[in-house]
Amino acid sequence: MERAVLGQNRYMHGYGQFCPVARASEIFAERWTPLVLREVISGHHHFNEILKGLHRISPSVLGQRLRTLERAGIIEARANPSGRGSTYYISPAGRPLVDVVRALGIWGQEYLELKREDLDPDFLMWQVFKHLKNDLLPADQRVVRFDFKGLRQSYWLVLRRDDPDLCYSDPGFGEHVMVRADLETLTRVYLGELDLKAASATGLVELEGPRDLVKSMATWFPASGYARFARPVKYDRTKRSFIRVEMPARSAATA
Q1: Judging by beta carbons within 10 Å of its beta carbon (0-12, 13-18, 19+), is residue 128 exposed, middle or buried?
Q2: Does 57 have pLDDT greater than 90?
Q3: CATH 3.30.1050.10 residue ranges in the chain?
Q4: Helix axis angle, 33-41 relative to 96-111, nearest 10°?
Q5: pTM above the 0.85 mark?
Q6: Are 186 and 205 in contact (CB under 8 A)?
Q7: Domain 116-244, what fold?
């Protein structure tokens, strides 16, 4: 009897199998862990930066996941050169997991449908901000305000080539471009499923401001790192929803 109880306790903490898939999953497949790795792989090495990228995780849970990954030899904690605390980097043993995380992202982009419960304006704006390419930003400071239909929160992107910023309250610089958008539509633009011009044509994204600045938004507005794997969509006005655009099958000669 004692032996059976010990076995049951063991299963509560893991799969209880020597299979490498089972043992690896006990670490990698724990809630939040793939996303923690996603952030570190993306070049976010500071605790608060990782926390913002995950958005809904608690600081205590993030600390636990980072310690677990460090004990497993997947990440390395290094002294923070700019102050207190640590920075986190993928270790040599963790590098093969870069391909695993990327494969998950590619598969999710290609095969999973975007649902309303997946939408999060804070996460979208943070991703847009973190993926801005400074060399594509205007030389002079420009401020773009984002309002999402049905939501009260506004966001301001301060575009300056040397030091862009994301603000959650009015920075007081004035607004050069106003974006009023349906959250799902702008998310699909970021994911690469829909271009900004097509989004504007639906009426679900409205851009207001000087013509040259509005037109330049298509240049600097970033796309997800998985955008090239996206399946395009179009807006069906009858159904009031997005539907997949069926792409023609490639022949063997062009594949």
Answers
A1: buried
A2: yes
A3: 116-244
A4: 110
A5: yes
A6: yes
A7: Nonspecific Lipid-transfer Protein; Chain A (3.30.1050)
Identify residue 30 by its one-letter amino acid code.
E
Q: Which two tokens stand for residue 244?
A: 């997949």
Residue span(s) of the chain under CATH 1.10.10.10 come to 31-111
Pick the more confident residue, 5 or 137. 137
CA distance 66 to 69: 5
Kindly report the CATH number that applies to the domain delimited by 31-111: 1.10.10.10
Which residue blocks in 15-136 are alpha helix, DSSP H?
20-28, 33-41, 47-54, 59-71, 96-111, 121-130
Q: Residue written as tokens 């207190």? A: 84
Contact between residue 159 and residue 142 where contact means Cβ atoms under 8 Å apart: yes
48 is written with which tokens?
A: 């608060």
pLDDT at 255: 43
Tell me the per-residue pLDDT of 70-107, one tens digit each, with 9 for 90 and over: 999 999 999 998 878 899 999 999 999 999 999 999 99
